[in-house]
Amino acid sequence: MDRRLLILALGMFAMGTDNFVVAGILPSVAASLQTSVSVAGLMVTCYALTYAVAAPVMAAVAGGLPRKLLLVSALGIFVVGNAISALATDVSWVLMSRALAGFGAALFSPTALGVAAALASPEKRGRALATVTAGLTGATALGSPLGTLIGGFGGWRSTLWFVTALGALAMIGVWSLLPSVPLPAAVRLRERLAPMRDPRVALTLLTSLFAFGGFLMVYTYAGVVLEPVTHGDERMLAGLFLLWGVAATVGNLLAGRLVDRFDSRHIVNAMLWTAIFNFCALPWTAAHPVSAIIALVIWGICGWGLIVPQQHRLVQLSPLVAPLLLALNNTATYLGLAGSGVLGAIVLRSTGGQYLSLFAAAMIALAFVLTAAAHRRSGRPAVHHRATAAPAEAL
């Protein structure tokens, strides 16, 4: 396999680990910095919100910069952000540094996908993108549980130093192995957001926002939600995260096969309704090891299994600007993650963690209403957009 793609995948692995590992160390961070878990949960919000806002903006603003320089700079910002987090003794510094790390991730991720597509021949472009994207899936199945496990033995700062080391290794690899890549065609921000004028697109993106907001609200505060079965043991929580990550990978692969055989709308509906029932039962199933494991497997399959059919629906809606729509879908997902951190913190303060999953189920139910509205509009004429971006850069 191409070493250049693998080093980009390592960078994505670092970004994904940094995004998801925080859920496993929130209680430790809160205790160490003498703050509440809900305030510490803003670490997720700061990272995700910065990523969601900065990714499409910086993709347009930094479109004229050399790709290699941009990737190395993005990883450098990411490394510095995590190093500051690991050294911080005040929650304000932690939150600021999380935003800095999210900014680095926002620069790196879309650029890495664009470079992967540029490096591959047209007939191998899909596999190249899949190789780099596999870094994110690997982060849920391996990076996050490993980081949580490191935190269980060496404290939460050790976890962040682990992520810092991953970013530094990827930065060295990109500098050493990546060749110069031709600059893509420039794309204005207004053109990137133009597809939002199509109500079907907007409703589908809102479906992603609320669905993943619900899924990731529970993940962000999983240490609290699963405390009845883990009893605060971060090593046991790491094992549960590993199981969740494996189920997520299976769900992603399974959804890819199902989309080729069935209408993606039916798959989305099945995933959403299964998740709603699962989260409604979680306050009780989380109290026993066997039922908690079953709930985690269902959660992982439905949460990550939703991504592929959502992407497929967007491509069907407007094939000419499909890469732009997929990039906006990614932004919607991170906005959902950012919002879920804030809403989850409010719920924790008012009701505690036991019934947090019920609020998440309500968000997923709203996502179902939105996806049904998008389907009702499917017979209406679409708003056509000019495809001005090269697929590689739009991603």
UniProtKB/TrEMBL annotation:
Residue ranges constituting the Major facilitator superfamily (MFS) profile domain according to the UniProt record: 4-377
Lineage top rank: taxon: Bacteria
Compartment(s): Cell membrane
One GO cellular component, as annotated: plasma membrane
Gene3D superfamilies, A to Z: MFS general substrate transporter like domains
Transmembrane segments: 39-62, 69-88, 100-120, 132-154, 160-181, 201-224, 236-255, 267-284, 290-308, 320-348, 354-374
Keyword Transmembrane helix: yes
Alphabetical keyword list: Cell membrane, Membrane, Plasmid, Transmembrane, Transmembrane helix
Primary localisation category: membrane
GO MF terms held by the record: transmembrane transporter activity
Designated name of the protein: Major facilitator family transporter
Source organism per UniProt: Cupriavidus taiwanensis
Upper classification of the organism: Bacteria, Pseudomonadati, Pseudomonadota, Betaproteobacteria, Burkholderiales
